[in-house]
Design goal:
mainly alpha
């Protein structure tokens, strides 16, 4: 006889139904619940191949299931992936600044503006924002196409 979700496993009837509705057996539901997941979250992580404790580690580092799967499949731990993400943000910021400086100089020459601090700041910020938007769109497109 299969165990049922209920008071014995620490589930209220409404909780038990939620877990059952997303396809979890009682033993699975308990493990995911004990790891701090709600039924819908647990299903997302399980669907990309994670077990509860591993999913918790990645989630605690700020990753979404699909992103965590990509990093894990590439051989990274949650901590390693977080470090690379942080390094990527720093490098992206530096590149944004360099692009902004280059295009600010170009814009000042093109529009025959005086190279005042105000103009440099305005164009620098505009180019940095434009660069970040384009970069985000490209990343989204890459993820979408995978």
């Amino acid at each position: 006889m299969k165990p049922k979700l209920g008071k014995m496993q620490g589930f209220k009837p409404s909780e038990a139904k939620e877990w059952k509705d997303v396809g979890f057996e009682p033993f699975e539901a308990k493990a995911w619940k004990d790891a701090g997941f709600k039924p819908s979250e647990a299903k997302e992580w399980k669907n990309v191949g994670f077990e509860p404790l591993e999913a918790k580690e990645w989630k605690d580092k700020g990753f979404e299931p699909s992103e965590a799967k990509i990093w894990r499949d590439a051989g990274f731990s949650a901590q390693g992936a977080k470090r690379w993400n942080q390094l990527n943000k720093i490098i992206s910021f530096i590149i944004s600044l360099l692009v902004a400086v280059y295009y600010t100089e170009w814009a000042i020459k093109f529009f025959s503006l005086k190279p005042s601090i105000f103009n440099i700041l305005i164009f620098g910020v505009a180019w940095a924002i434009a660069y970040d938007i384009i970069k985000s769109l490209i990343r989204t497109l890459i993820i979408f196409l995978k």
